[in-house]
Each structure stands twice: as structure tokens, then as C-alpha cells.
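input
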Amino acid sequence: MKFYEITFSPTGGTKRAADILSHALTDQISEVDLCDRSADLSKLSPECSDIALIAVPSYGGRVPQTAVDRLSAISGAGARAVLVCVYGNRAYDNTLAELLDVSQKAGFRPIAAVAALAEHSIARKVAAGRPDAEDEKRLLEMAAQIRQKLATADSAVPQVPGKVPEKPGLPMSGMAPDASSACIKCGLCAEKCPVGAIDPVSMNPDSKKCISCMRCISVCPVGAKKMGRVFTSLGGVALGTLCANRRECELFL
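output
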């Protein structure tokens, strides 16, 4: 039996939550990075006896379309799946419902679902430092419950909140970070962009390709990739109001 950790985690928060759960479930993990645009996911071949932990961030209450497309390229072959959506303390809306639908269509058998918290990818002060120690404690408790279910023949599909959206998700327009004068032209942002939206010479994004994942900001070694100050300030104020109350991780079995 193999254990696959399949993640789409542009800024790292989703991966941190996924790692806590995965390492509590097994010490033998095969990692699959859905942000790697060069990966040939059609060659990934889980078996019915395998387990996959599939983790994605919530973008506007949806699974990022890039993650949907790449998950759809994998043949789940009946492998059991633990689904994880990670959000920045506002709401995850239809993310788990959509992830359950996408994973089933790819051939996985979802047996558990988790909604976890991580620092907001744009307004970094929102849910700053999460998943924190309290989150980790909760996630470890959830992992114990998931492990118990995996040890049985119980393959009941978890009942998750939300509904399956009728239309494909759309990228968030007008939210593409630009390179400031501090840019050293190292090319790391262009290399790591999940959709190849950054020009490797100018280091500026193609706004039609950009999915506003903010990975370029998180990987820049000199902090040269930034969102506009006005947008960041207004967005932070609005989200700070919406996200004032701490939300907690949830488990669905």
C-alpha cells in the first residue's frame, strides 16, 4: 500500500496543514506537487489499496481551476482519499463539495474530509501564523479518527457542506503582482509559477494567465514581487472585518 500526498499549495499554507495530517497517518509518503506544471500526472498510477490525501486551498470558496484540471488528469483507480481544503479564516463555501466531486470523477473514493486554516495568501495578517499549535493539536486528533476509519471496511462518503458549482472556476482578474525595482532577475518566480504566467525576462505577469495564487511573492528571495499598496490595504481592511472571529478546523467522516 502506498500513501500519496497530493497538494496544490502555491504559498505553502496548504502544504503545512497537509503535512501535519499525512505524517500523523503514515511515515511513508509519496508527494505529488500539483503546482509543478512540468509534471506528467497521467503517469501517476495509484491502486485500489492505496490512500491519497488531496489538499487544495480555497479560492473564493472554490477549488482553484488549475488544481481541478490537474487532479482530473490523475486516475484514482479506487484509492481511498482524505480530502483537505485550507482557507484563510473567511469561509470555504463550496470548496469541499467541489473537491469531493472532482476527486470522485478522477476515480478516488473519499472517506474523510477536513477544512483547515492557514495564513491568507493575500492579506497576510489574516490568520497569520496558522496552522498554529492549537490547529496542529486539532489536526492530530482528526488524524487519529481518520486512521480508525481507514482501519475498517467503512467506505462511507463524508457529507460535506456546500454544493457542487455548475460552472468552471475563473481566475481572479486584476490581481497579478508586478516586479518592483528591487528585482534581481533571478527568474525564480517565472520558474515556480504554476501556470507559466511570468515573463522570464521582465519578470512581470501575463494578467490573462495569472491565477492570483501569490506564489511569486512567496518565493521571491528579495521581496520584489508585490501587490499594489492600495489594493493590499483595502483588501486587508475588508478581510480583517470579515475574519475577525477565529474559525477552527473541521472534520467530516
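quick obs: The two ends are 22 Å apart (CA to CA).
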